[in-house]
Amino acid sequence: MMVAFQKGADGVYVVGCLEGECHFLTGNLRAKKKVEYAKKLLDEIGVGGERLAMYNIAASDGPRFAEVAREMHEKIKAQGPNPIKGATLNKKAA
Amino acid sequence: MIVAERKPIDEIIGFVKNCKKILLVGCNECVTVCYAGGKKEVGVLASALKMAFMKEGKELEVEEVTLERQCDHEYLEEIRNIIDQYEAVISLACGVGVQFLAEKYLTTPVFPGLNTSFMGVTEESGVWSERCQGCGQCILGQTAGICPISRCAKRLLNGPCGGSTDGKCEINKELDCAWQLIIDRLKELGRLEDYEKLIPIKDWSTERAGGPRKIVREDLKS
Amino acid sequence: MTVTQETKTINLTIDGQQIKVIEGASVLEAAQQLRINIPTLCYHKALPSYGACRLCLVEVSQSGGRPSLQASCTYPAQEGLIVKTDTEQVIKTRRIMAELLLARCPDSDEVKRIAKELGVEKIRIKPKHKDCLLCGLCVRMCHDRMGRGAIGFAYRGSNREVQPAFDIQSDVCQTCGACFSICPTQAIKFEKITKNKPRPILSEYDSGLRERPVAYIPYPQAVPKLAIIDEEHCVSLQTGECKVCQEFCEAGAINFDQKEEILKLDVGSVILASGFKPYDPAINDTYQYSRFSNVVTSLEFERILSASGPYQGHLLRPSDEKEPKTIAWIQCVGSRNTHVADKGYCSGVCCTYAIKQAMVAKEHSDTPLDTAIFYIDIRTYGKDFEKFYNRAKDDVGVRFVKSRINNILPGDEEGDLKIRYTNEAGRIAQEEFDIVVLSVGLDIPQESMDLAQKMGVELNNYNFVSTKTFEPVRTTKDGIYICGAFQGPKDIPETVMQASASAAASSSLLSSQRHTLTKEREYPDEIDIAGQEPRIGVFVCHCGINIGGVVNVPEVTDYASRLPNVLVADNNLFTCSQDTQDKIKERIEEFKLNRVVVASCSARTHEPLFQDTIRDAGLNPYLFSMANIRDQDSWVHQSDKEGATEKAKDLVRMAVANAAESSPLYRTKLPVIKRALIIGGGIAGMTAALNIAGQGFEVVLVEIEKELGGMGRKIHTTLQGDNIQNYLADLIEKVTQNEKIEVLTETIVVDFSGTKGNFKTALTVGPAMYHREVNHGALIIATGALEYKPKEYLYGESDAVKTQVELEDILSREESRIKEWKNVVMIQCVGSRNQENPNCSRVCCQQAIKNAIAIKEINPDINIFILYRDIRTYSFLEDFYRKAREMGIHFLRYREDEEPTVEQEEAKIQVTFKDLTLGREIKMSPDQLILSAGVVAGDTQELASILKVPLTSERFFLEAHVKLRPVDTQSDGIFICGMAHSPRLIDETISQALAASSRACTLISQDAIEVGGVVAKVDPDLCAACLICVRACPYEVPFINEDGVSEIDISKCHGCGVCASECPAKAITLSHFEDTQILAQIDALLEAG
User: Fold this and answer.
1) Burial of C939 (0-12, 13-18, 19+ CB in 10 A)
2) Do C964 and C1019 belong to one domain?
3) Closest CA to C442 of C511, C346, C531, C552
4) Which residues of chain A have a CB within 8 Å of the CB of B44?
5) What is the mean pLDDT of each run of 10 residues along chain C (1089 residues)?
6) Which helix (H) or strand (E) holds B15?
7) Domain B2-118 has CATH 3.40.630.30
């Protein structure tokens, strides 16, 4: 997740099964905690934790998947590009 | 084990803000186990630092290496050939490792990435707590295996203070009163008479009072 | 050309290159071997050279001799000959030849092409505008290869012409078309040569919408994908002449001596699966199908929509290949009609396929397309089909018109069609359409009937194989089983289930012979790729129009070929077809590939196939990577073709990066526990238990209630009149007496762990609630469903309101009460097809009709009114709907948005509803109101969460693939059957139970399964023995071994990767999902942005 942001991703989201329905028992809960930790770290360095999200979607729920994709797209669009990219670009422009 | 936690990123950035190329050194011992300075945390910190620099329009080259232990010469030797390439080193070891590294490589500034907290245990996954302060005069034999020095806020040696309420410490209601634990445990062991035995005034010279400590075993010394 | 020791060889030099050919070869053939391009026109590989066109001129000389220009097609190769094909003289002369040819036939595309290739643009002499070049190909072909001589050259010099003898239509001509197909200038006029009318051979696969050759591959995904020769039309097989194809087949694969063989096989059982044929609407041509070319059958329309179809997936109508603006579907063509061809049954699948076609057509159409489906009842009774219908109606805008259509008239414009119909208000309306699709039903071909007769298998009155409710795959002949549409109309999931069911029934019979004919699949030795740089081959799939219609596949392929480490990139129409597998293997060999990437569909369905392919070429299966450019790209970005193409590139780039980092992995064998656990002791669970036991394996059958039987205990008869209680008693007896089956009643599942072949289930058993653990290799979920408890229509408040199940109880015990009733109203779709439960409950229409008939038989004077939305008596059940109407039972339709209302009026209840025929409200005061309460899922959530098996949004268990794996779950080794899967009738439940048994036995009949591959591994040098993995693993697999480092048993590891993600020392990696692979993909993804 961190590397994705470091390489310039504007947003990253992790999709897992519904809570309690993980094929690997608790994998999705662990994933969620990892995401929370990484969000804090992103806040700390000023990239913004809200660029990272975890969603739980049922395997059968295609429409929700699409909805989440749109939701995340809008959210990230509203926030603009990853600040680390912007700074590098500005520098190049200058 | 020695338990530590990562310093706030801002503080670490402060150490190296003018650098372009640094070395991050992890330690595969205690700080790996307490999830503060192992290979994984080294990677996460490297990534975070790079991003923080990029955000400011700067670039930071970060090399990552995790040594078996930073408190042994031989392992520290592993970075001898590369250390001169870096403007600074951030050690993700405990204070011992940071110092030893700094002692060994005099020309490169070494900064701590962690705050070394205490000697302690893993209570459960993700929870660590203190158990020992290295006083040099272990009295656990008399206190049913519960250390009043590390676990009593006042380091009392002969029973609780007046602030012990419902088995909790007056400093922090979350904290068990060490002496309550000792008494309960002695009772369970049928050794309550040990509680009656006074522990004499402790010679704190074996702790910090006598200055930095050192142990020498002649039979092992080369 | 093979050069052997015996044949004399000749050495010559062409354009400085040495070449060895056999004696007798021409210079042209020698040059072709060197892939030197020499233009030709009158040359044909299957004919002796003729030297007519002179385009193939080359300069030849013996060493030291004078060079001369010669036609290379006729000039024999000679020892020491020096040939030059590109001297100024040669080119200049060829140009003159081309100019002369162009002057004769300036209108021929082929001549123009050749002239252009040679740089000839102007003609300096007067053009003659002839059709025929006089190359003689046709004459030679007819005479030399077809043995006919129907045409020849007549006259001399400038009057020379190709004609039949005396210019009279020839009797010799066999209308084979060889002259026509070989002529470079399309100069052959059949009417001059023969009295016969040539007729094209129509492609069977494309429903006659286009032509096909005599030698052909039936369809792109044919297995095996081999060319076949149409015996009836092959000149060689008819007359012994021709054999032209043999000249071209480099593999020498054409064998005209192949004969039909009769094989005698000794078998213990036979399964009939010969399927159906679509009803032929031309027989009773109600809709003038044979007259109007824009009236097409649904199967023809399917081909029109298909990427590999006659219009390459463009939506065009046959008469003028115009894009349609309006399309109509007429339902029930050859179904539900006793007057025409005696097709009294419902074909069961047409409603859903018509909806699908209407939706796909709308998607395919670049301009807004009006689609209208004319129907009697919409029968979307399958699992989640009603939701699909709702989507078509509410979101996509497909029109549904309830009206039976009697005929089709020509429209005002040429090719258009007019439909006149009575609308629901009873008025005549008419509309014009560009295409009318006939939703043809399922019919049984004569050959199948003959086969059944030969085998002594009885058919029913509609010529489908006759079966009994409780033995749905057993024919009237012992040992012969039936599955699929030959048993009765059914869709794909039901067909797949029944196929497995017939396998189960047959396996039970033959279980003593299991594995006696098994052969081990052998793979070549694995190529050691250690130390090699990645050498990647990429195969991009069109998937017909699925991907190719949205993503620019050639562009993606070209892009892929330029990615790092990629040696070759190809694209294929269907990458999963057999010939592509061969191509992939060839490419691996040709380019010494050590990694393969396929960009196509879902790894979930197709990765095993491709892994097997590369394994067959000596590569470790884990050196395969896949990019899903269909489900994740073309299907979701249909409206953004450019964006989808760019995304496909991203996905391919990531897969290539992943492949470069992948490494070989190995699997080991793990013994399988030969026991199944079945949860649910209803008809489904018991049927599965008996079959598994019959196949020789132990079963533990777990039932939550005190007694076995489930929902079956409450139902007394089937619509066909079978006695369910007798059957159930017999079934329970058999199950409890079977020594291989252990029945545990009042038992619940409390814990579940393990992997396929090695599960462990913890149970709380009996009233004493003791704890027990069962080890088993497979698990079947057969927990059934419940009757919906209505909240509407005064249910529970008035005694006069009952459900169908409660009515059955009255029917079985209190006949006298029924005799007192004068009026009964039944309301359909209570608790189904609404907001709360969008699905059709499938069984209620049959229940209502069954009970209505039963009431009417007890009390013939009674009035029964069934208020319905669509009557869904699919398949042969339609007969009972007809019977009910004939008995005078009234069926009155209400609209979804105008549900009936029920009020208590003093002692009686009053039902009010709007009759659609009369267009007004009607009030009735029945003695009894029966609610056809739907089927709802049981309390499945806890069990699902223990088993980690996902549910649908209506809480039925979710299958692995809706069509192709209808009884498998996403967890290997766990299967579903009965109402736990979806509402269904008893015969369907039994079929599905047998299917689940078949799938379970396929697993537990194996002695061992392979484990490993995608598992976690520990690097002991890095391990800090911190115990984090030990604590984190949800399956408690890692432990700290004697060496003081973490160890993971691969047979127990599920490959979830939690330990790898938690390891603070990064000592643990998950094979096939290693950090390097994931980071390489992230790098690849983000490098472009």
Assistant:
1) exposed
2) no
3) C346
4) 2, 41
5) 60 90 91 85 92 92 87 93 92 93 92 91 88 92 93 90 90 91 92 88 90 88 82 92 88 85 94 96 92 95 86 89 96 91 92 96 91 97 95 95 93 94 88 97 96 96 96 96 97 96 96 88 91 95 85 94 95 87 94 95 89 94 95 89 94 96 90 96 97 97 96 91 95 97 96 90 94 96 95 92 94 90 96 94 96 95 96 96 96 92 90 87 94 94 90 92 89 94 96 98 92 90 92 86 91 87 93 91 82
6) helix B9-16
7) no
Please report whether residue C105 resides in a domain.
yes
The total number of structural domains in chain C stands at: 8
Please name the residue of chain C whose CA is at the shortest distance from the CA of residue A17: C950
Q: Which of C293, C289, C318 has the alpha carbon at shortest distance from C303?
A: C318
Q: Which domain holds residue C39?
A: 9-117
C638 and A CB contact within 8 Å: no
For chain C, say whether B104 makes contact (Cβ under 8 Å). no
Query: How wide is the angle at C-alpha C947 spanned by C-alphas C976 and C965, nearest 5°?
Result: 30
- To the nearest whole angstrom, how far is the Cα of B215 from the nearest Cα of chain A? 41
Neighbouring C-beta atoms of residue C613, cutoff 10 Å: 25
- Which value does ipTM take for this structure? 0.90
Q: Using CB atoms within 10 Å of the CB of residue B206, give its burial: 0 to 12 exposed, 13 to 18 middle, 19+ buried.
A: middle
Contacts of A45 in chain B (CB under 8 A): 9, 48-49, 51-52, 55
Cβ distance of B51 and A45 shorter than 8 Å: yes
The torsion region of residue C794 among left (phi > 0), alpha (psi -120 to 50) and beta comes to left
| C-chain residues near B66 (CB < 8 A) | 1065
Q: What is the interface size between A and B, counted as CB pairs within 8 Å? A: 42
Q: Name chain A's partners: 3 or more CB pairs within 8 A.
A: B, C
Residue C1066 lies in a domain: yes
The SS3 call for residue C274 is coil
Nearest Cβ partner for C1026 among B33, B41, B124: B33
- The verdict on residue C779 lying in a domain is yes
Q: Do C1034 and A23 touch (CB under 8 A)?
A: no
Same domain, yes or no, for C801 and C840? yes
Domain residue ranges of chain B, discontinuous segments joined by +: 2-118, 133-206
Q: How far is B120 from chain C (nearest CA, A)?
A: 14
Q: CB–CB of C1063 and B35 under 8 A?
A: no
